[in-house]
Amino acid sequence: MAKIELRQIRKSYDRYVAVENLDLDIIDGEFLVMLGPSGCGKTTTLNMIAGLDYPSQGQILFDGRDVTAEPPHGRNVAMVFQSSLLYPHLTVRKNIEASLRHSKLSKAERAQRIADAARMLELEPMLDKLPSQMSGGQRQRAATAKAIVREPACFLLDEPLSALDAALRLSLRSELVNLQKRLGTTAVFVTHDQVEAMTMGDRIAVMSKGNLEQIGTPDEIYNQPASLFVATFLGSPPMNVVAGAISNGVFHAGPVAIDLAGRGIPNGPVSLGVRPQHVTVTAPDAPGAIPVTVYALEHLGRESVVIGDDATGNKLRALVDPGFHARIGDRLGIAPEAGACFFFGADGRRIAVSSSPA
Ligand code: ATP
């Protein structure tokens, strides 16, 4: 078990800054997901926690102990990668055993550890198979067994599911979380997939361009996004964003007017964000509705998404009943529910939640 603290971490490669001002407290026993688009610094951060890379500035503490300059083996962490390495010429049993080669365990203790790991990951029937005789999911489970058999203080997982097909990803998602909860081992899981993050994380750390945008539970990140970046990165279909302005306490964007008086918001440009489940589809000229031209209708089974272009070419999405009918080119209106709107300032930070329509 380990509590991990990152203090004012900065990592630069020559003049390129990959991670900056990063303060992160990873709670003992939690499943923390680091989420962000490609190149935002997730892997760099994970590698610094592992000791595979070293910060240019800042400190890393494991249970209060400064490990910033320590090599990986001084930290007792186990890494699982996207295409985790199994020795192709060794059976699963030998592959798992290879993780224990530097340990001081007796032969009997090793055998017990391997048996426990194989049981947890349901690999018992496969222990004598070679990696080439197994499916992708089985190989990933074998790689996970290699990681858990050492009983590390922390698991570091770098997109371990992204090379697998969709069905397998889905089942391994819950398997991994279930295993982590049974073991109680701190886990840091890197992904760019927001569904993985929402379904797996006790908390999610959202990163953008080398900075931590927000850290919180999936519920906090989704329902109280700190920035436009977080708001639009999480949620499917994505949040609608409408550019507008505050004038005397009222938000205006074309026909949309939402009274935010009493919130002390200064005049100036502001973006409105509203999720597709919080808009109403109306006639194009209905009061408070943004006129759109239907661009696509996507059927999701239990519901559909109608996508429309507004006058500026901005795409707006509305969740509708599966029986909803519209043709490409039809004219509709999309009206945000005032009480469900988020507002973001010119700096991208969230500034207020609306009260009532003007
Ligand atoms: P992905 O999801 O694509 O792996 P990521 O969020 O994990 O992205 P990192 O791999 O941490 O991103 O990389 C962050 C930035 O640092 C990238 O722009 C990358 O090009 C740069 N970078 C990473 N490693 C090095 C290196 N060894 N030398 C120079 N630049 C690097």
Automatic annotation (TrEMBL):
Species for this entry: Acidisoma cellulosilyticum
Domain of life: Bacteria
Domain ABC transporter span(s) in chain numbering: 4-234
Protein name (database record): ABC transporter ATP-binding protein
PROSITE patterns, per the entry: ABC_TRANSPORTER_2
Similarity comment: family membership: Belongs to the ABC transporter superfamily.
Annotated InterPro entries: AAA+_ATPase, ABC_transporter-like_ATP-bd, ABC_transpr_MalK/UgpC-like, Mo/tungstate-bd_C_term_dom, NA-bd_OB-fold, P-loop_NTPase, Transp-assoc_OB_typ2
Record GO terms (molecular function): ABC-type transporter activity; ATP binding; ATP hydrolysis activity
SUPFAM superfamilies tied to this protein: MOP-like, P-loop containing nucleoside triphosphate hydrolases
Cellular component, GO, one term: ATP-binding cassette (ABC) transporter complex, substrate-binding subunit-containing
Pfam families hit by this protein: ABC_tran, TOBE_2
Keywords: ATP-binding, Cell membrane, Membrane, Nucleotide-binding, Translocase, Transport
